Amino acid sequence: MKTALLTLSALFMAIFCQAQAKHDTVFFDDFNGPKLDRSKWNVEVTGHTNNDEQQAYVDSSSVLYFVHGKAAQGAKNAMVIKAVYHPGYTSKEKNKYDFISARINTEKKMEFTYGTASCRMKIASGAGMWPAFWALGEGNWPDCGEIDMMETVGDSSWISNALHGPKYFGNTPLAYRYFLPHKENVDQWHIYSVDWTPDQLVFKTDGVTTYTVTKAMVEKYGRWAFDNPKFIILNFALGGGYPNGVNKIKSPYFGISQATVDKIKAGKAKVLVDWVLVTRGK
Questions:
Q1: How many helices, marked H, and strands, marked E, lie in the chain?
Q2: Cα 47–Cα 53–Cα 58 angle in degrees, nearest 5
Q3: Among 29, 51, 98, 123, which one is least packed by beta carbons within 10 Å?
Q4: 276 to each of 98, 193, 254, how far by Cα in Å?
Q5: How far is CA 112 from CA 136, 147, 157, 196, 254, in A?
Q6: CA distances, 208 to each of 10, 23, 194 (Å)
Q7: CA–CA distance from 185 to each of 21, 140, 227, 228, 244 (Å)?
Q8: Nearest 10 degrees: CA dihedral of 172, 103, 275, 122?
Q9: Which residues contact 42 (CB under 8 A, 6 or more apart)?
Q10: Is residue 238 within 8 Å of 101, Cβ to Cβ?
């Protein structure tokens, strides 16, 4: 009974969010076309990594593609970001990687100040898998401000919310680890969101408030960096400082377990995204 209620709750949230999109929308994409709409999204190509991550981001249908029907695993359509084992991949900067993945953003195509940003996602788990749904301002980091609506580093039982800005970045004090309700995990569909106003940010999972950060809380550490436009980012990183800080794994890759490597090799390291929605503030 509880599972049925949770499913209905998620369905209600999906219908509610899509109804909002018709009236208050700033941005909406339900990935129902044959391929990514490049008028809405940029695909990042990087030959270097931050945070000691182990992947290169590439622009390829091997790591970023759309699925429909049964392949969408419970959605009508979905975008897939897939981590791929590609030993010896060499970037144009001559850096070598054993994994490739994807990262997309809306920079200079859709940027918003205040409102609600939400995303319905289904995420593979495994130590060192580091997908995220987040927002970033223009300019130098961390002064530009970063809003992490959803991050996970492979433990299927929890996700994290965080803010980064001047004097509160890296292992920020403004972070919260939210454990999903009993019998739920990140491998299931969930809606991750943030309600952003001039004086606070309220993070939610499936409409349930997980973490609230006020301007007064932020200003204990540094300047409030959340009064400027932000763009949306979706990415699937592998390994690096945050996963390693949680799982302490150094081999076979920094922050990535052998079981996760095996999962990637088997083609099972995928993030499915049903839709992304940004609505204007009230």
A1: 4, 18
A2: 40
A3: 51
A4: 30, 10, 31
A5: 10, 12, 31, 10, 35
A6: 11, 23, 11
A7: 27, 35, 33, 33, 21
A8: -70
A9: 104, 105, 106, 107, 108, 109
A10: yes
Q: Output the six-digit token pair for 95.
A: 């850096």
For the chain, 282 residues long, give each residue's pLDDT as a single digit of tens.
444 444 544 555 555 555 554 569 999 999 999 999 999 999 999 877 889 999 999 999 999 999 999 999 999 999 999 999 999 999 988 999 999 999 999 999 999 999 999 999 999 999 999 999 999 999 999 999 999 999 999 999 999 999 999 999 988 899 999 999 999 999 999 999 999 999 999 999 999 999 999 999 999 999 999 999 999 999 999 999 999 999 999 999 999 999 999 999 999 999 999 999 999 986
